[in-house]
Amino acid sequence: MRILFYDACDYDEDSFNEAKKQFPSIEIEYIEADLNPITASLARGYDAVCAFVNSEVDALAVEILAGLDVKLILMRSTGYDKVNVGAAAEMGETILRVPGYSPEAVAEHAMGLALAADRHIVKGYNRVRENDYALEGLLGTTLNGKVAGIVGTGQIGAAMCRIVSGFGMRVLAYDVRENPALDFVTYVSMDELLSQSDLISLHCPLFEANYHLINAETINKMKPGVIFVNTARGGLVDTAALIEGIRSQKIGACGLDVYEEEGPNVFKNRSSAVFESVVSTLCAFPNTVVTSHQAFFTKEALAAIAKTTLQNALAFAEDARESIPPQNVVCWKGECAR
Ligand code: NAI
What we know:
The protein has helices spanning about 10-20, 60-65, 85-90, 105-120, 120-130, 155-165, 190-195, 215-220, 240-245, 280-285, 300-315, and strands at about 1-5, 25-30, 50, 70-75, 95, 145-150, 170-175, 185, 200, 225-230, 250-255, 290, 330, 335. The protein is an alpha/beta fold. Strands 2-1-3-4-5-13-14 form a seven-stranded mixed sheet. The protein has a seven-stranded parallel sheet with strand order 8-7-6-9-10-11-12, with helices on both faces. The longest helix is centred in the last third of the chain and has 19 residues, at about 300-315. The protein is globular.
């Protein structure tokens, strides 16, 4: 099994080389270029490609891979919304992913963002560095006794429910499927969640059906001063409406690890680039904290991603679908899991 590993960073190589010691039959070639319709042709001669969340695995890229007899697309991520699954299925491709490699890592970052935005931690730190010890503009909210609304209670959402519950918050949730393990959570309609929550955190995948789930209308239903957090996907939120919500003070604090338009920025140093970006607008707000898709980024998560990705690759090489958890399979030899 020869894998072409796209968009490789030093930390990827470190974690995959460490995990590879347990998989002697797998060879990996790392390249800096990300997978897209132009770079797909580099995969000639490989059995599989390994891609990440923002890789452009559109219909053309899939067609090129299939034409090169690259039958396996290994997503080293949970989300796969940039992959044209329909096109891949038509071409008989297999897409495997890594769900739940460290749900706590993402949930802990979500809570960190909520606290950083609401308690003005970054601003406070910058003030102290400037020898400014004034408290004006740093007022926050006590979360204990308040209501948290968690949208999506899969692995990450469930971890977030446990965290907010630990903070002494009452936990409401909305999901298309209830999680029976969360007996301390009250499932409500999306409208109820929006109108009752003091903290709203998104943890559902992005599909066509929930694109811009958070928009002017849903923001209007939120409690004034709500703390809003998105570590799920940028496309779940209409950024223009979010900016208006922050400007009008409907949203009292905002923590984002993902945002629309993040594609060209993610994991790149673009500090010398001159560009109009939604990030600069968001960062101009004193109550908004933005990080760039780093919620997953812990030592434990990287090790788990590498191990599961290589287990997925081996299962494909051995034609042993039954040896990998069903939730890892997006599509197996053209047959979609959903
Ligand atoms: P999961 O598959 O375990 O859970 C997703 C949950 O969302 C499921 O319970 C599902 O029923 C629910 N859901 C689906 N559609 C929904 C809708 N329209 N409204 C409400 N709930 C809905 O996924 P997991 O592992 O919890 O990940 C959630 C999302 O977090 C991923 O899809 C990904 O977009 C994002 N993520 C972000 C990372 C980051 O570094 N910022 C890292 C990993 C994942």
